[in-house]
Structures are given as C-alpha cells and as structure tokens.
Model the fold of this input.
Amino acid sequence: MNSIPSSGYAVYFNENGYDALNELLEERHYSSIFVIVDTNTNEYCLSSFLTLLATESRIEIIEIESGEGFKSIESCLEIWSILTELGADRKSLVINLGGGVITDLGGFVASTFKRGIDFINVPTTLLGMVDASVGGKNGVDLGNLKNQVGTINNPEMVLIDSRFLETLPQHEMRSGLAEMLKHGLIADKSYWEKFLDLSQVDFADFDQLVYRSVEIKNHIVTQDMTENGIRKALNFGHTLGHAIESLFLETGRPILHGEAVAAGMILESFLSLKKGLLSASEYAGIKSTIKHVFDDLEFSENDVAEILELLIHDKKNEYGSVLFALLDGIGRVIVNQTVDNELIIAAFDDYKN
Done:
C-alpha cells in the first residue's frame, strides 16, 4: 500500500514502513533510541519489531503498565526521569510502540523533553492505527478527566504494521472498530455501509479498511491541525463518550475507549435526530448497527447526572458552552452545536430502550 502524506510526515504501511523507518534512522544518526512500550507490547510486539530495525544507535526500552489509568502525569515524570538517567539528549529519538495510551503519552513525553525531541508512532492496536497515532495530538489524563494536558505536535512518521492486530483480543478489535464506524458516519456513507452487515466484511482484506480510515482522518486533520474548524467533526461520539469513559474509570468499572465512543455515537445520533439533522430511519440504522457490535452499557440516574457534570470539563468547551459535533445525515457532520440537558437525558432514556 502507498504511504499517506500528512502535515510534515507520512503514514507508512507494513514492509514499506520498515524500509522508510530504517532509511530515516540512517539519515538522522540519532544518538540513542528509546522504545516506549507497555507490558502487553513488551511481551507480544517488541521482539519482532526490534528484529526489523537496522541501526547502530543505542536502543533502550522503557516499559510502563498497560491501561488508561497509567496515561498520567505520574507516568510522564517517571519516563522523563528515566530518559535523563539514561543520557537522552536533543538528538535522541522516542519510538512509541503500543496502543493509544502509549502513542498519546509517548508523544507528549517526547514533545516536552528538552523542549522537544523526535518521536515515531508504531501503533499496535486497531484503535491506535485508525485514530490515536494520526493527527499530532499527544497528551495525558488529569485524574479521571480525559486528555486535559497535552500538545499538538507531529511525529516524524507513523508505521502501521497490521500483523500486530493478530496479537489483539476481540474486545480490543471492537474498540478500534468504533472509530472506523465513526469515520464512515461523519465523512463517507459508502464506507459506513460496508459495516452494516459485519458477516459480509472481508476481514482478509482488512488492511484496505484500515487504510481508508486513516485516509479519512488524515484528510480532516490536515485541513485543521489546531481544531478550530472541520477537525471538530472527529469529536462526533466523543463529547458524551469521553464523559462516559471518565465516569466508568472514576467508579472503578473501566471500559475501553471504543466502548464509550460506541455509546456516545448512539446518544449523539439521537441528539442529531431531535435537532432535525438526521432522519428516523437513519437513526434506527445507526443504533441497530452499533448495538449489534457493542454490548449495552448500564446507566443509573446518578450516572447520568454525573455525566452532565463531567461535560463541564470537556476540553472542547468554549465560553462555558458544551459543543457537540452532530450528524447532518450519514456521511456529513455539523460542528459547534449546543444541546440542553433535558435532551441529553432523553438520549440516555432512548439508549436504554
């Protein structure tokens, strides 16, 4: 597959990606290379990745625990200290080998260490491949509040090796699928329709679906790197989705990002329906398709009240207003939409039915 050019870097795929990576390492002559992994990628991905590197630079491995709970300033402090102790300098390189937690956190660590050193993202989860590793957003959570501290800073390249997907359990694959569904809903109706009957999806050609998702996200972010306009379209399902994810983390019942976003997409599709942007048949199709893939989440009245409180902290808010990206039919989106709390509560009531 051809590479996808982005803003000052490119996304490479499979064998071509390793050729590009080794060419970059030869050109840059990095003083040292630090590969950030979590416990899962250390066990399942690191050894095969290292065998494909061709470099004379010193390589060090930095491992953190896996999970959203470790996407924190505390983890950054630990990694910054390790980089310092191991002699990292301005000519060092960070390679983030992992899912969205690793690419988000590792990109933030590299962007801020010594005012910024080069980094490369090598996503190993479906979610990381189609979402987190592309677009230059790096950051960490503040307690249970998602992505409150971070930067927008691009990697030197992204390498997507679909063989890493073979290491994933099914629930992790579903988590990434949520973002792929979102890409179809906001930008490509024909792409969305490929997922209407998952039994007909040709998973032998899954690389092409991943490629199309990366194309869609990249096309949006290259128009609006700093999220002042069209990039807000990517927030569809995430305004409520992030609040749901924070709630479940806070109450000791953590769920995957894609599971929260799946619920968020149903809820925000309902909001689109009630604001006259989406037809009843379109909404029914969205709800049915997503619920066929993802189990229902359970929300008590107190949960919904807490979610409304959490919305106040959403980083996408402006001038005290919670802003939504809503569907304007399937394949189109409209941003900066305000919604009152009564309609949000109605969306949760509908979700339960």
Observations:
- The two ends are 43 Å apart (CA to CA).
